[in-house]
Write a structure and sequence with these properties.
Length: 503
């Protein structure tokens, strides 16, 4: 833009202050439905990253000793503030990311659930004790914070995924440096403002913006002890390898190709509704989106019904009432999804429903692709091998349940899967034999609630501990084992013990 000064500039959060970056590198934040430039985001300088980490390191010295009840009460206040500002947060999110207002509220709400979980940290950060393991000896564990932690979050859930990360890290006594997606950081910054309002002290939460250079700086910085990442497999693998080599704890939730099996006995209308919602909601821009359906046996006759159901979905800007499918996040995403649809045709799949170039009145410049369905898809095709990250559903066929399970298990990804059936025996066989981290039975997007942990597996995850839930308490704490003996004043030993055993 020529008049860049007229566009708001996103700030950095360093040491409790929202500050203007001194960088010369900026990126436009663009409304994907209109191409309007909403703001400009800085790519933080080396000095600014260093200031953020240094602030977090200083704050850790006092925050780690803050009573657990005081930490908990901050998150009780924080969840209240998020609830009060839900509509505002959703509006910001829709403007910069594109998803419908209802889906944006869902994005915020699923993050809010983790904030509520963080408020119960007093029940989660408990150690263990064994009394009298030897004569007068007790052993117990302490779950202590590890220091400065960092998070790198993607564009598709700019509220939920940051809220997966920093609340649990901070609640367990750590400090945090967050790098949100440079494509849509404004709702993340509003959440950071509310966190400070809730009482998060200066330096405990810091936010920097940028691209690959900032990611690498987080991976390399010697004062950062742990890194949490959600995003593409390509970037996640880089983050895991680089940060692990630097001696950090790392958890990376990455790409996916999620399948649903449909057995002929499934409730037809409920199943079709679930398939369409999971495949095309959020314009397919979810790591847990349903991108492949495997129709087993006579369920292969449902393709026409599935296409008819998809045709009922309304493509429009996220702010418009009744919208089911909003725009893709960027022009580049639109080009990529359109290219993959074309490649699917070239490689021999049958295009049952073509969602390219939909007419969206009033939003002719938007990045829109409507629901798209391919049948006759094979595992060698690009539309099956690649994560499309758009509203494109691949339909495959299998003669039996075991054949469908083998197809899913042969895919390198293991984020989520589902089965639709009325048979308890089939469902149980599926859950036992499938090699995927998150399993849905008549549930199309089986993302667990925060009492459990996100458990993607195989090519979809690097690191052994998932975000939120009990697993992330382990990730953000160091277990210290204490063995102690207090002697009775009258208990005087008579000999030196030179063995390894306690007596």
């Amino acid at each position: 833009m020529n008049d860049s000064q007229a566009v708001p500039r996103v700030k950095l959060l360093i040491d409790g202050e929202f500050v203007d970056s001194t960088t010369e590198q900026w990126r436009d934040i663009v409304n994907p439905a209109t191409q309007e430039v909403l703001a400009r985001v800085p790519f933080a300088t080396t000095d600014e990253i260093e200031a953020a980490v240094s602030s977090a390191k200083r704050a850790f010295q006092t925050w780690r000793k803050t009573p657990i009840g005081a930490r908990s009460r901050i998150f009780l206040k924080y969840q209240q503030l998020i609830r009060e500002h839900m509509k505002e947060l959703a509006a910001i999110l829709t403007a910069e990311q594109g998803k419908t207002l209802a889906d944006a509220e869902g994005d915020v709400f699923r993050g809010l659930e983790v904030v509520e979980h963080a408020a119960g940290i007093g029940n989660l950060q408990l150690g263990e004790l064994a009394n009298n393991v030897a004569s007068g000896v007790d052993t117990y564990t302490l779950l202590q914070p590890i220091g400065v932690c960092a998070g790198i979050t993607p564009f598709n859930f700019p509220a939920m995924i940051p809220l997966w990360m920093f609340p649990m890290a901070i609640a367990t006594g750590n400090t945090f440096v967050l790098k949100p997606s440079e494509q849509d950081p404004m709702v993340t910054m509003r959440l950071a403002e509310l966190a400070l309002e809730a009482g998060v002290p200066a330096g405990v939460l810091n936010v920097v913006h940028g691209g690959a250079e900032v990611v690498n700086a987080i991976c390399d910085h010697p004062d950062i002890r742990a890194v949490s990442f959600v995003g593409s497999t390509h970037v996640g693998t880089h983050v895991y390898n680089r940060a692990s080599a630097a001696g950090k704890r790392v958890q990376c939730m990455m790409g996916a190709k999620n399948h649903a099996i449909v057995l002929p006995d499934a409730h037809k209308e409920q199943t079709l509704n679930n398939l369409a919602g999971a495949a095309f909601g959020a314009a397919g821009q979810r790591c847990m989106a349903l991108s492949v359906v495997v129709l087993v046996g006579q369920a292969q006759e449902w393709i026409g019904d599935l296409v008819a159901k998809a045709r009922t979905l309304k493509v429009n800007a996220g702010v418009e009432a009744g919208t089911d499918v909003g725009p893709l996040v960027s022009c580049a995403a639109l080009d990529r999804v359109s290219s993959l649809i074309e490649r699917g045709q070239q490689e021999g799949a049958t295009l049952e429903l073509d969602g390219r170039n939909p007419a969206v009145a009033g939003y002719e410049n938007g990045n829109f692709v409507g629901p798209t369905i391919f049948s006759g898809v094979t595992s060698e095709m690009s539309i099956y091998r690649e994560e499309i990250f758009g509203p494109v559903l691949c339909v495959m066929h299998a003669a039996t349940l075991d054949e469908a399970i083998a197809l899913i298990n042969a895919n390198p990804n293991g984020n989520g899967t589902a089965i639709f059936t009325r048979s308890g025996a089939a469902a149980r066989h599926f859950q036992e034999e499938i090699d995927v981290g998150q399993v849905g039975i008549n549930v199309p997007i089986p993302v667990p609630v925060p009492m459990f942990s996100f458990t993607g597996s195989r090519g979809s995850k690097l690191g052994d501990l998932g975000p939120y839930g009990k697993q992330v308490v382990q990730f953000y704490t160091q277990t210290k084992t204490v063995t102690q003996r207090w002697f009775d004043e009258n208990d005087v030993g008579t000999s030196v013990n030179t063995t390894i055993t306690l007596k």
